[in-house]
Amino acid sequence: MTVETIDAFHFGKFYVVQPATGGHRSGMDAMLLAAMVAGDGKLKVADLGAGAGAAGLAVASRLQQAEVTLVERSPDMAAFARKSIALAENAHVASRVCVIEADVTLRGKARVAAGLEDEVFDHVIMNPPFNAAADRRTPDALKADAHAMTEGLFESWIRTAGAMLKPGGELSLIARPESIADVIAACGQRFGGLQVTLIHPRDGEPAIRMLVSAVKGSRARLVFRAPFIMHEEGHHFSSFVDNLNNGRAAYARLGRKRSAR
Question: Quick one: which of 15, 210, 244, 248 is 20 to 30 A from 8 by CA?
């Protein structure tokens, strides 16, 4: 039996049930990803590879009309996501969040049959597996499944996002900076207007993450935004990063004008 924890996010505005030691445990990456969703009205948001649901729940908690679909392949992690939604502390978002247990890499009729329908979402977010095949593999099966990158991963995940998004819909993802070429190639003719933000632990240190947003069908050029410096001094987060991490601010696209209709 997997030991689990119930963890507070956004200073207790919502909670997530997660495996205590095995499997993927959500943290800063999920909260920064969630911060990339901005807008008004009943935004329909899909979180691909949602795990226990932290990023999607963060979106639903901050945007009080957003409707969020958590897409997760692992039956065990999907079960954690359902437990998270069912928590009494999450009653204020439960009616607007659902779980689809499906493989993000499904194509065509198989994808639609699994519940991942064409052109129904305003925003798709994703935190794809990031460990290369040569990286040291964890013996934990749940964690390995969540972290192991496979050949063509960005192509398959971004293809699915492109199919699920409405025309003009927005894709947001968080990944390692060394994946930038794969992400740009996968966006191909599906997405344009890529905006990339590099995240550095401290001033003068190499970037460890990047945030990427793109718009379905856009022909706008690639833009590199000002980087994030996570820690101003010691281990303290900068006020800007802390606000994103705790749901007090959104990280919207530059020049963003679009809302859900």
Answer: 210
